[in-house]
Amino acid sequence: MYLFGTEELAHVEMISAILYQLTTDLTIDQIKAQGYDKYFVDHTLGIYPQGASNVPFTAAYFQSKGDPITDLTEDMAAEQKARTTYDNILALVDDEEIKKPIRFLREREIIHYQRFAEALEIVKGHLNSDNYYAYNPAFRNGKCNKK
């Protein structure tokens, strides 16, 4: 899973580089005209991780329960949400120089989703089919059975 985390940080770096290139030479008039003035007051033209709704990034977005079924399902959902975000960006943007890296990132989300789905199937193959979702497979008889 650490490899995915490293690659996701690279995605943030790529998006940040695109944003930096798009905003680095803005004038005050352009900043105002594009509604970027509130952001500018807090961050100048620095890249500050936040969603399109202006909600700042927080580590609270990371989910982990220690249950492989729960965690892999959460990972798959995150990849799908990221892919949808890239789809939406592609629908809004006309500049091919922006679209190319966004398409690349979108493809990576699809591959990540597929790898998490494969991992989920492997985990399911090791579960007791009579007790499929009744317990966290890492815990049995009140004890942690991590190896």
Descriptors for this entry?
147 residues, single chain, 5 helices, mainly alpha, two-stranded antiparallel sheet
In round numbers, the mean pLDDT is: 85
Write down the Rg.
20 Å
DSSP, total strands: 2
Distance between the terminal alpha carbons, to the nearest Å?
17 Å
Unreliable sequence segments: none
Strand order of the largest sheet: 1-2
How would you sum up the global shape?
elongated
Secondary-structure element string? HHHHHEE
Oligomer: single chain
Major β-sheet annotation: 2 strands, antiparallel
Content-based structural category: mainly alpha
Helicity range: 55-70%
Which band does the percent of strand residues land in? under 5%
Secondary structure elements and pairings:
Elements: H1 2-23, H2 28-33, H3 37-43, H4 68-92, H5 96-125, E1 139-140, E2 143-144
Antiparallel strand pairs: 1-2
Helix pairs in contact: 1-5, 4-5
